[in-house]
């Protein structure tokens, strides 16, 4: 069914007894309205000619304004109909509101960031802020329309990131991905069409780099376990949090700090992973019990957190929770460096290395489907690819077979 455009008087009377003028866009029986910011009394509107009656003191000016807006809308509708994309009434309305041009990239990016903030995804906000800033730096601080983002421009941006920041393939991927997300927002709204899409085959290919994952050995974990530390100190607490994470297959630090006493039921830890909302439970390892018992005296209620970092957080404010976890992670990172020095571990210690350490020690001993449940991966291919970072027996044997002559 063809799309139609018409100027109408909306039946929404204001306090001044006037009714707003709007352009109605109809397709397949569904309509959307673009208000023109003008209103008139009902007796000054001619519904048959769709014009303001001459009885209105500004009828000439208003009718010229209506005619101009209607011509702009019809031109944009013709352009949309001539493209391969079948635009919806809402998309056509967006095109009309932007004058047919692509909206500001940074305005859309800010809208995307606001939506992340509203949904409590502060970790993504924190990660994407500098990525957007780097793109603006590349543009010398200038704004740009989404329509102006092309393959040649992105090629230059990639070169900029390689030369100015020495970015890895993964970093470049992440910085291009935020551009792609914003571009897709514009495409979904009909601001730009798919013919100019700069990502994909024979265009800008999105491929994250593969980083080398290094975990601790069994011997190194044992050194950390037997390290003599004064109870109640920051380094002692950090060791507890790190080992708690490791004993639960490299549980993420945000999930560790969110763990409550009420999550422990019948000797099992029940929790939902924050990253992908996957629920599950696992039996408490014996080594975990003395760790949590050390915090038992500080328990205020059944629903209290085991570890202290979030006890004073405003749980209704996701941003406050995020900040306290981020602050704690930095503190843990500093103490873990001290732990590495005390145990002669020559590896880059971090909370995330607990996950790599579990993978390194387990190697090929545990079936992938079991590891998938422990890691809480959505897809088993993710588990297999992750675990392949730590399985070197065949390649090591092949190398020995050739060089040991």
Would you write up a description of this structure?
The protein is mainly alpha-helical and 405 residues long. The chain folds into three domains: 4-97, no CATH class; 105-196, DNA polymerase, domain 1 (Orthogonal Bundle); 218-396, hpI Integrase, Chain A. It is 48% helix and 10% strand. It has helices at residues 59-82, 89-97, 105-118, 122-138, 151-164, 169-188, 218-225, 234-247, 253-257, 288-293, 318-342, 353-362, 368-375, 380-387, 393-403; strands at residues 4-9, 19-27, 30-40, 45-46, 51-52, 264-265, 268-272, 279-283. It is elongated, with a radius of gyration of 30 Å. The mean pLDDT is 87.
Summarize it:
The protein has 15 helices and eight strands.
The arrangement of helices and strands along the chain is EEEEEHHHHHHHHHEEEHHHHHH
Beta-strand residue percentage: 5-15%
The largest beta-sheet arranges its strands as: 1-2-3
For the termini, the CA-CA separation is 78 Å
Q: Helicity, in percent?
A: 40-55%
CATH-assigned homologous superfamily of the largest domain = Intergrase catalytic core
CATH class of the largest domain: Mainly Alpha
> In CATH terms, what is the fold-level topology of the largest domain?
hpI Integrase, Chain A
Q: Can you tell me the residue ranges where pLDDT is under 50 for at least 5 consecutive residues?
A: none
Structural class: mainly alpha
DSSP strand tally: 8
Quote the average pLDDT: 87
Task: Give me the CATH architecture of the largest domain, please.
Answer: Orthogonal Bundle
Radius of gyration: 30 Å
